[in-house]
Amino acid sequence: MCQMGVIPVLTVKPWRALFDEKFHVVVGNLPPTQEVTLHSLHQSEDTDYWEAFGHYVSDAQGRVTVFKDPSVGGTYEGVEPMGLLWSMRPIPGSRPELRLRKKEVHTPMVVHISVYRGHMSQGFREQVALASVVTERWYMAPGVRRVDITEGGVTGTLFLPPGPGPFPGVLDMWGGSGGLVEYRAALLASHGFAAMALLYVFPDQHKNATIGYPYFEAAFRLLQDHPLVAADRIALLGLSLGVTVVLSITAYSEAVKPRCCVCISGSHACRIGATQSVEETSQGIHKKYAKARTDEENRLIWRDVLLPIPEDIDLKVEMGRITCPLLLVVGQDDQNWAAVESADDVSYVWFAYGKHHASYMQFKKPLKCNGKM
Fold it and tell me: How many CB atoms lie within 10 A of CB 118?
């Protein structure tokens, strides 16, 4: 395979780690200036296959060191130590509209990492790898406790770090595609937060009509009253439609006073009124879907639905009412929400109010809500 019959060696350290822990991928025993492809493959719990790959050229010593060497092509480019994870996509020929989500947090995400001769972009299964390693990426660290929550009408899952506490708390709300998504809360608990994944969009549409401020206030109190949670150190975390929930209840609820808010890929340009349900707000957004369009690959683009960002304060969350620190995380390539325009408007409004405790992070790499709202 290689010069003088030397067998390439692939190492991944640590091979077992938390999902967000950086790993070091190194290929050795290659000829100098050898073109190779590093490839990752994962079979999801839905049995679909996901992959990522980067094109590398070995150095004068015959090594590829991913944390310092650039990928010159593939699903990611440049020096990207975690590119083999964050750039994963469905393999060619997969069924449409897939979403990579970990359902069972007690088991690891198993990722096969392999190195191939040459710069490949397809046909990995038909080729023999030079070397391969199986790695495990975990969301739930040893000692983290998972507790089902069904109290006071609230449904969710609480993850508690090991130790006596009290721990800072996080109320975690995903998007409007519904269901109870636990893996982010499990990972937060693995880093020392008491995190509760909250179910607020139910398969039973009738129940959704009753989910409004009282439900979120009850969930906040439940987390606040837990003996292992620091009552004055609770954050709200929202993604997609969850951002609408976070901003609305922080601005208008007298019972919800978070220490800070983190909002990922959402907008303030729609809000939940004090007497409204989440379902009513979602229906209001859906009525605007006539403005949605499709791209050249027939993918539905929703970001136009809320554009232009309204100037009328009655049509969006009144950001001047929010007094806690706020972090907005958006992707410049987000095609589901007008996240960049919304964050620009929020920043303008906050500075107009003389508030300077907002942070605004933009990512040039795709950061998208890949599922339905």
Answer: 10
Q: Are 45 and 106 in contact (CB under 8 A)?
A: no
pLDDT digits (tens, 9 = 90+) for 356-365: 555 666 665 5
Residues 187 and 134 in one domain: no
Domain housing 125: 3-138
**CA distances (Å), origin 82, targets 64, 68, 181, 283:** 15, 11, 23, 38
Question: Look-up: residue for tokens 């975990």?
Answer: 138
Q: How far is CA 24 from CA 27, 64, 291, in A?
A: 10, 11, 45
- pTM score of the predicted model: 0.89
For the chain, how many structural domains are there in total? 2
Strands 109-117 and 131-138, bridge-based pairing:
antiparallel
Site of tokens 């790695």: 135
Phi, psi (deg, nearest 5) at residue 215: -65, -50
Secondary-structure breakdown of the chain: helix, strand, coil percentages, each rounded to the nearest 5? 20, 30, 45
